[in-house]
Amino acid sequence: MDKLKMHSKNLTEANIDKLAILFPNCITEALDAKGELQKTIDFDLLRQELSASVVEGPQERYQLNWPGKREALLAANAPIAKTLRPCRDGSVDFNKTKNLFIEGDNLEVLKLLQEAYLNQVKLIYIDPPYNTGTDLIYEDDFSESIDVYLEKSNQVDVHGNRMVANPEANGKYHSKWLSMMYPRLRLAKNLLDYDGVICVSISDIELKNTISVLNEVFGELNYVNTISVMAKVSAGASGGGEDKRLKKNVEYIVIYAKSLDDFNTLAHLYTERPLIDVINEMRAEGESWKYTSILLGADERIFFGTIKDGDGNPIDIYKRAGVRRTTISKACKQEGISEADAYKKYFKQIFSDTNAQTSIRTRVMDAVGRLEDSEILEVEYVPRSGRDRGVKVVHTYISNTVRRVIWLHDVADASGDQIIKKEKLGTLWDNFDYNNVGKEGDIPFPDGKKPIDLIRTCIDLYNGREGIFMDFFAGSCSLPHAVMKANSLDSGSRRFIAIQIDDAIDKSNKKYESAIKFYEENNIPLKITEIGKERMRRAGSRLKVDIVGTEDANQLDTGFRVLKIDTSNMKEVYYTPDAVSQDLLSGQVDNIREDRTAEDLLFQVLLDWGVDLALPINQQVIAGKTVFFVDGSALVACFDTSIGEDFVKQLAEYKPLRVVFRDAGFVSDSVKINVEQMFKLLSPATEIKTL
Fold it and tell me: By residue range, what is the domain housing residue 552?
């Protein structure tokens, strides 16, 4: 029994709870003066969160730690002076599409997207490089030499002698992999909407560390599930060490919510099989199929009374007499119809009453007592949890022992030619075709290609047909393909953001021999980004053909806007004006790099202002000047020179929410000074900036 506190509120605990919201990774466990565990702040990590340089901290504590973690945290928080440049070559429907394909290191890209897509992404699916003990593609700036690493992690002494017998089996590769993943996951969390979810495909090698790092980034309370995926046919997945270990035929998907309280229920997820197949299989295995009763009819219902649930909320009870019922077998015999036809004919009336105990049933039994064989109850209330939380439901009870009726139409669907049984999706996913995965997208890709149906199942974790879906290890672009496929099937308007580093295919890799031949025959450059773009083009074209002639054909977005990461459009003087000497000032009048276009500048403005990079862009010529209108008049930009007052007045007539000019683009300093006054007079709500 808990004791009363008998003291005022502990403000220290309250402050720790506040910090836990902002910095969940800084909450740890420590022993108090009595030797008992208590929640506390990791002040070293908190200092690191608020510091622009590496902070040392020797205190031991319960936490996930590895050599290089502080550098990884610094890498996540450090700003970069880069931009995304539009690339119309390679894009599809650049002006109309809402989808993005971004070429570049995903750590840098995720940083650039922080403003524009903060709390905007509904689902992130990633299939990161599995840790095989070899070097990773993503060699971030904070990585260290092997000699420095070994010394810092106490694997060699001061004389360079190794302290472990087998360096291949020590933590080196785990730490390097964690240092690669940690900053990316931290940045990805910021992009997820509050009801969003992240799915990470991983093998058993880093499964434990994946869960540990996701616990730290997202919080252990936001863990949803770990899915076991049958990744190969019965022969088993490939892998070394099979002389001493069992074959690998399972991979994993670890799922975390941004906020489990806001995350949508997963009650909408089912696997589907023909009902007759399910019944025949159960019979063959000696099991009893429960949905065999038919309610033929009953008299009008009469109000019995109102009781309360555990929270004091009302439960209304109604009785119906004159119940008439039969069974599937009797209906088949009396009417001379097949079992399949009986299930179709009486689909809405078929039920099972072999349900489990519930708290509501107990309360109903206490109020009503026993029922007559000719009576049923209809109970109306609003559940406070579960699939129907917050929605009024009607539950039926039957028989002397007041058993809950479960209707067949609640667990099956009869909208098509046959009845389909819906089975609640569990944590073993084994219905994906890996035999033909290489053919999906009409393009080969030997590295980690995942079945479209697997990705679509992940997409379905978010219960909605719109929103942004992201993959920042895009590879051959399975997720964009799956998003387009999902939209083609349910008329959805989901969008994707795919990010992939522009890495070349290794011609010496034997597993790529047949794929390289295909790429060369089809004039596809030997780069992962080019393979991904070609797959999206082919998949989009095929999906359009599949629905040609339907209303959805013109609505399906199979395009993508290609953006490439690059150095900032601005010269160094823009960031460090104090570093320019007096004799060089004449060459710094224009602070924009000479090789950048107006459209390049526009996209850096969109990033800086936190505007969606997929908004429609309309280019017009006004008074001889090129003007960009983003999403109507949400943002108007002109980067031409010799901007005068008459032109500014014309732009103000559009009453844009935001307007931006080149800093050195005005015809005179007086015009530049007067711009704000002109907009205050003609369009006072407009926000004005220059670059």
Answer: 82-268+429-563
